[in-house]
Design a protein that fits this description.
This protein is α+β, with helices and mostly antiparallel strands. It has helices at about 15-30, 40-55, 60-70, 75-85, 125-130; strands at about 35, 95-100, 110-115.
């Protein structure tokens, strides 16, 4: 029986599942939008929201907790410098899940998980292509 055991196993052992979520978190904060299966995205949403909350606190302990869950130091720096300040007025719900398609190989439901508030284009080249 699985009473009081939350989270999906996703057909993986513990170490594989932790590594999967760490790589998904790193990709999400690096690209700010990724496409994955529905079950993975639903599990990732809680982890990503927790990391952004750590980024909002900005303490050294929070940075170390984020480094334990995100592979790359530059992505953690981006989380604390760029991503977390965007959500300073928001108390939760930092990510959204959008259904996109069914995967061709096995028919799995694919979704895009993205940050609610996207980054503003900063360079003039980005602004010219947007016009």
């Amino acid at each position: 029986m699985r009473h009081r055991k939350d989270g999906r196993q996703l057909g993986r052992n513990t170490a594989h599942r932790k590594a999967l979520f760490r790589s998904l978190l790193t990709a999400l904060f690096d690209h700010e939008r990724i496409e994955t299966t529905s079950a993975k995205a639903k599990e990732l949403k809680g982890l990503a929201d927790r990391m952004i909350t750590f980024g909002k606190s900005g303490t050294l302990a929070a940075r170390r907790r984020a480094l334990a869950c995100v592979w790359r130091k530059d992505v953690v720096a981006k989380l604390f410098k760029d991503i977390a300040p965007r959500f300073s007025s928001r108390s939760g719900g930092y990510t959204r899940i959008i259904k996109t398609r069914r995967r061709v190989g096995d028919g799995a439901e694919m979704v895009a998980i993205e940050l609610v508030e996207q980054a503003e284009p900063t360079s003039t080249a980005d602004q010219k292509t947007a016009s």
